[in-house]
Amino acid sequence: SSQNISQPIVVPKEFFVAALQGKQRFDTTTVTFSPDKELLLRVLTMPVVENKTVAYIIQVARSLDTVQSALDNFKAILFVLLPLVVFITGIISAFLAKITLNPVDRIIKTVQKTTAENLKLRIPVPTTKDEVQRLAATFNDMLERLEKAFSSQRHFIQDASHELKTPLTILQGELEVTLKKIRSVDEYESVLNSSLEEIKRISKIVEDLLLLARFEDRETALDRREFDINRLLQSAIDELAVLAQHKKITVAFSADHTITINGDEQRLKQVFLNILDNAIKYTPSGGTISLSVSVTSRRVEISIADTGIGIPHTDLPHIFDRFYRIDKSRNSSGFGLGLSIAKTIIEAHQGSISADSVINHGTTFTISLPVTAPSH
Ligand code: ATP
Ligand code: MG
Question: What stretches in the chain show pLDDT beneath 50?
């Protein structure tokens, strides 16, 4: 036995049983050296075989003191240090979260301050190149779109009230002057007739505005059905034939076969009436208006060309705007709503409308419509 062990260690007998059978074994056991000294030992008992019999048994033991104290240390770390680390990490994360979410706070403040009146407000975009930056940029884009939509609505209301004010002022003036003294029956009749004219103008504007407002929600306002587009064009031409004859304008159109499309027949007729009405209005007498229809498997294209006064290059992009009229002296009767109504109706059908013009030579409107209704 080792020299540092003053007295022999007594280990349980069964340790040797396996060794005598030629097997080695490991054990953990507590050994009492003296009444106040107990040691936890890890013991290896191993036979040494000579001539097929067990000649010696070697027993090696090692104190588990260091392992035990390491385990005790580990326990202390686990129960004291770990909660401390969790606590400190918590505080640091809360602090970091606050810094990172600061921009979100600013977004919230800006959004809270945003109303229809101050859509000009923008969120400061952080330069962090992360989701918060994208969120701020997206918010700003949305604000810009809303601002545009609101301002176009505001202009529309301003224009509409302005257009309504003129005939109303005329009406009021005429009636006031007439009422100043007793008039003859003829005078009354003439005033009533001109009042009626103004009222018709006002009704027409209100009707057009209502139509445009109704089409704000697009698709829903359409009453779709299958119909022959050639027949529709012919009936629009027939309706305006008197006007054209009056100005000695030839309308050239040959509809020899049926082209069925799916759409709102009444509304589309209104589109063609508007365009033909313009063509007649803005073409000097003796001119020609020619219509042609071409069709592919999916779309039908209608072009309406006149030999009229044309539209200046600079005005061409605006003719579909509400209340847009080129040089009011060209014609006094319109409001500038005809083409914007046409465009609204065509777009509700998922179609497109465009114009091409050469000044003093003529204008061509091209309308393209899908043949079948879109499936949702
Ligand atoms: P409304 O149609 O409301 O009675 P309008 O005819 O003046 O009024 P739009 O039909 O919207 O208004 O047309 C806008 C403007 O485009 C017209 O004022 C006119 O100057 C010009 N325009 C439209 N069609 C033609 C055309 N075929 N030839 C020349 N100018 C045209
Ligand atoms: Mg018009």
Answer: none
